[in-house]
Structure formats: C-alpha cells, structure tokens
Amino acid sequence: MKTLGTGEVVFYGMDQTVQRLQGEVQIKDTRVILSEIIYFNGKPNGMREINLPLDRCVIHWQPEVYEEIGFTE
C-alpha cells in the first residue's frame, strides 16, 4: 500500500460533514498526516499539518512522475 505522496483526502466527520483537503499525504499507523503549504501574496510562507483518523478518510493519490512512465515502487 502506498503511504506517502501527493493527493486529496476526503474526511468524513462524526457530524456528517465532509471536508476535501489537498497536499502531501503520509500514512502512519492509524493516522493520516496531511501537509499543506500556506501561500501569502503568491509566495510560500509556511506549512501546516493536519492529523486525521485513517478509518474516516478516503485518499485519492495523484500519480507521480515515475508511475506515469511505467515504474512502480
């Protein structure tokens, strides 16, 4: 299973809310760590990490360059 890469995380909250977040995704144990770059005036200015439970998330991975040309992990 892929555990690191760029993608979109769809998080289903306990109160029936749905959030769609994009960034660098990493899976550790039962958690999904999403890192988002914060832009200020069009330039990267910082980063924030969001910690989400894995069992309430659906991850849509974006293909990496080596996957597009035929190599696999």
Number of helices: 1
Low-confidence parts lasting 5 or more residues at pLDDT below 50?
none
Order of helices and strands: EEEEEH
CA-to-CA gap between the ends? Answer: 10 Å
Share in helix: under 10%
**Spatial extent as radius of gyration:** 14 Å
Summarize the biggest pleated sheet: 5 strands, antiparallel
Approximately how much beta-strand content do the residues carry?
over 45%
Structural class: mainly beta
Counting DSSP E segments of at least 2 residues, the number of strands comes to 5
Count of all domains: 1
Biggest sheet, strands in spatial order?
A: 4-3-2-1-5
The overall pLDDT average reads: 88
What's the shape?
Answer: globular
Task: Write a brief caption for the model.
With 73 residues, the chain is mainly β. 5% of the residues lie in helices and 63% in strands. It has one helix and five strands; from the N terminus they run βββββα.
Features:
1 helix; mainly beta; five-stranded antiparallel β-sheet; 73 residues
Overview of this structure, please?
The structure is a single chain. The model has no long low-confidence stretch (mean pLDDT 88). This protein is 5% helix and 63% strand. The chain has one domain. The protein is built from one helix and five strands; from the N terminus they run βββββα. A five-stranded antiparallel β-sheet has the order 4-3-2-1-5, with no helix packed on it. With 73 residues, the protein is mostly beta strands.
